[in-house]
Amino acid sequence: MTIFKEIVDEEYLTVAETKELLADVEAERVADEDRDLQYELARAIEHVNRFTVLEPAESRELVDDLEDLEKVDEPTAYKIANLLPRNRDELRSVYAQQRYSLSGDELDEILDVVSQYA
Q1: How far apart (Å, rounded) are the C-alpha atoms in residues 79 and 101?
Q2: C-alpha torsion 18→23→25→28, nearest 10
Q3: What are phi and psi of 105, to 5 degrees?
Q4: What is the pTM of this model?
Q5: pLDDT at position 3, please?
Q6: pLDDT at site 83
Q7: Domains and CATH numbers, the chain
């Protein structure tokens, strides 16, 4: 017997926004003594606490600024906001699976936007 799960809703989040949501879940679990903090949830909370650099509002602004650029679509903007690449090589790794490559000027334009926030 196969169990199928249906995707009800999907939205992109930055690491900072995820940290905010997981903090609410963690507080809820700590308040309820009968519920344990599952291993996966604890690891996810540890991950976002370690890798969050920006505040949620800043990360959302960064995504909006990146989406204003011509070569940055929504999923890529969120990847860039989560990774905060500092040089061309790190940024190229984000675009490694795309069917096109960016010129040096386009990469620099994206890095200029990221440098305003990082």
Answers
A1: 16
A2: -170
A3: -65, -40
A4: 0.85
A5: 78
A6: 95
A7: 15-51 (no CATH), 56-117 (1.10.150.80)
